[in-house]
Task: structure prediction
Amino acid sequence: QVTLKESGPALVKPTQTLTLTCTFSGFSLSTSGMRVSWIRQPPGQALEWLARIDWDDRKFYSTSLRTRLTISKDTSKNQVVLTMTNLDPVDTATYYCARLPVRSGSYDYWGQGTLVTVSS
Amino acid sequence: DIQMTQSPSSLSASVGDRVTITCRASQSISNYLNWYQQRGGKAPKLLIYVASSLQSGVPSRFSGSGSGTDFTLTISSLQPEDFATYYCQQSYSIPHSFGQGTRLEI
Result:
């Protein structure tokens, strides 16, 4: 059974750095073709793709946010970590991690999401 | 970056209706197009992948078609649980952009 779960602070102050952890089970990120992405959704708005990490440690980022994002993985812990620097209130959103197997090219399993509010 | 545009942004329909949602890519994405359903503030759920393949467990009233730049999601006979927001997403190139969503209302 595949599961993913996001964790991190619910409230962050402007200019601070956000660290989110995606802990997953039921698959391995060391398996060829496996990938995990982070996607966010501001309240009442559309989904926005943020970053992806692949089984071979290749990393990809949103064009507009690449200078503020870092994605990494700990295969032994079955975790993917996203850091975002210099937070602003517009970064208030629900942050999701999702699995992307290369065979389907689609996000077939998602975490429940974690709401992050940026406010002083 | 590839831009994904959905139409309509919102749609009112009734149980039993047939509805179609359209998604257009700003450049050709072959068939690397996926559809998701999002209900009640929950995480999105995969419905259709590579334009027309039905995800396991998804009812057959959902279908997808298209290639290149133009794609459609069709629900053949709306059920009460289908009233939700639908998103298209391209996985042809990074960044994996989403459409702005189509809200399907009763």
Remarks:
- DSSP finds no helices and eleven strands in chain A.
